[in-house]
Amino acid sequence: MKRPSPDNAPVQKTALLLSGGGARAAYQVGVLKAISEWYPRVHPSPFSIYCGTSAGALNATSLACHSSCFRLGVKKLTWLWSNLSTEDVFRSSLSGIVHHLGRQGFARMQAQYHCAPPFGLLDNRPLRDLLRRVLNFNKIDHQILSGHLHGLAVTASNYQTSKSVTFFQGQPEIEQWTRSRAIGIKSQITTEHLLASSAIPIVFPASQIGHSYYGDGSVHQIAPLRPALKLGAEKVLIIDLAPKQTSREPLIAHAPGLATLGGHLMDAIFADTLSADLEHLDRMNTLVGSLDKKAAEKLALRQVDAFQLSPSSPFEPLVERYYCHMPIAVRSLMRFLGISPIDDAAITSYLLFEPKYINHLIDMGYQDAQNLRSDLIGFLGIEN
Q1: Torsional sign, CA 19, 23, 24, 30
Q2: What are the tens digits of pLDDT across the range 193-239?
Q3: Domain spanning 14-91+122-243+257-316+355-377: CATH 1.10.1740
Q4: Engineering a disulfide at 195: which of 122, 207, 263, 352 sits with its beta carbon 3.0 to 4.6 angstroms away?
Q5: What pTM does this model have?
Q6: What stretch of residues is annotated with the motif GXSXG (predicted)?
Q7: Which residues does the annotation mark as catalytic?
């Protein structure tokens, strides 16, 4: 396998785009684990740009901290997810849930001049503690200065302005951007940015950055590819978390309940905009291909290749199998809210942070990547 000089960044800027999906993001780790095995043990990352949203932002940031050694970064991320449990992400004991909900209710019964904390059914403060322990954000600057990292982007949703906000850290030439519903802000990525990007609406409390409150980055993100393109990507590998659609229809149609509607809403938030953005990218590539080089440069257009990898199997059967491993207090809360482990498995798949379920997703991602090995090797330009 041909190895580029470790002192030089990749000639072509390749971006890794990781979408959101809560516990489903363990699938991305399996894919990256397979890809890392196709490179030598000590080898810089094939990706110079990392873009993440929601749980994908946590994975992207962790990998960006180890851009100079791809295998090491993936190994650390795999270890983190393999040893993850619900209690590491949110308080899942009966006393913890009751205390959190009681505190939320009491805060909202006080006088109007009292500033109530952001609402969330679950207390995700354990996740803040975990991120502070396992991530060294100072390494991001080091990777940028060494030339192994061109840029890192974390996307969140601003609840005050209803805009998609991408916080990015990278090379000096990367400029901020402003669109009608999206902006890019140069910033030092911290734990709060990751908590904001992964704060699933209603489930987890919003995170305050500056004077604004932010939530899950997928909510207002109508162009998921934009951060990668703004950071200068010429190729984008997308690890999506929306399983491939099947043509099988249920024999009996049940009227959707609140939890079912919530599951469909979350699936739409995390998946639908990416499909539309990829279609737009295809049209732009066709346009660029029809222009001569000078005309394309004058219009500031360039060809951007994209490779999308999605789970080959749905998550719902796995949720039904591993639902019993979820803490009983969390299951009781979900039952109280009318969430069924069978009928509403879609929404449960985002919150099932249990080792057996997570490791199954890692194995699924690993196998899917191996099945597409030749295609991925060709896209990444790995030479034997």
Answers
A1: positive
A2: 999 999 988 889 999 998 899 998 888 888 889 999 999 999 999 99
A3: no
A4: 207
A5: 0.89
A6: 52-56
A7: 54, 216
